[in-house]
Design goal:
Layout (H helix, E strand, L loop, with lengths): L1 H13 L10 E4 L8 E9 L4 E7 L4 E8 L4 E6 L8 E2 H4 L2 E4 L5 E9 L1 H5 L3 E11 L11 H16 L6 E3 L4 E2 L5 E8 L5 E8 L5 E6 L6
Parallel strand pairs: 1-3
Antiparallel strand pairs: 2-9, 3-8, 4-7, 4-9, 5-6, 5-8, 10-12, 11-12, 12-13, 13-14
């Protein structure tokens, strides 16, 4: 009984705050003419979240990277017309990619988890969105800069360091698995410099981070 109660309380603490249900403001994301990427910055406090909306057409490639100042700040993504999120940040992390978008309006919801919202905490955040590929056709691919950003975002928690301690090659090369790869190093202070490799699929979706130093980490 006690164990079940503890699990229920943990799930409640991780749930989005009241902002997920009401009073979220909506901000349309504007892309410059001819641009495939846009970056928005904002701030939320307590139970007041924000919804960023943007349009896509069918068959494009969507990549999103969320950078919050507060660990209790999460990003949920909703496909056009959907009531259930296709990406839940508290479970899946701060990066999201989809290789075949639906036509319509996507919604990126930023909110604080329930306990943080009740404490009236603040979350400053940056959301990068990139949409590439011709409508209904093959994707033109996500830019190399976005792949490097995604690599840092995935590798940093794996090694327990700030993304600034990760140095990556400027070139994105082909991988042996038919996708793409980026080699780099991570400075772990007293533990030394470790080698790593980020692997991406042929559609440029994130696959995994490989430790290339013999001792692993």
């Amino acid at each position: 009984m006690i164990a079940r109660l503890a699990i229920a309380m943990t799930a409640l603490a991780m749930a989005p705050g009241p902002s997920a249900l009401a009073e979220d403001r909506t901000v349309p994301v504007r892309f410059q003419p001819g641009a495939t990427a846009a970056t928005v910055k904002g701030s939320i406090r307590g139970d007041r979240g924000v919804n960023y909306t943007f349009e896509t057409v069918a068959g494009q490639t969507l990549q999103m990277l969320f950078t919050p100042s507060n660990r209790s700040c999460t990003l949920n993504v909703y496909a056009p017309g959907a009531d259930e999120a296709v990406h839940i940040g508290s479970v899946a992390g701060n990066a999201f990619g989809q290789t075949a978008t639906q036509a319509g309006t996507y919604r990126a919801q930023v909110s604080l988890m329930r306990n943080a919202a009740r404490r009236n905490e603040t979350c400053r955040h940056t959301l990068s969105i990139e949409i590439t590929g011709r409508p209904g056709g093959s994707s033109a691919g996500v830019s190399d800069a976005r792949l490097r950003d995604r690599c840092r975002a995935e590798a940093a928690p794996m090694y327990g360091v700030s993304p600034r301690r990760i140095e990556l090659a400027a070139r994105v090369g082909p991988s042996a698995e038919g996708g793409f790869q980026i080699d780099g190093t991570v400075d772990k202070g007293r533990e030394g410099v470790k080698k790593l490799r980020c692997l991406f699929t042929r559609e440029r979706g994130f696959d995994r981070v490989m430790a290339m130093t013999p001792d692993g980490r």
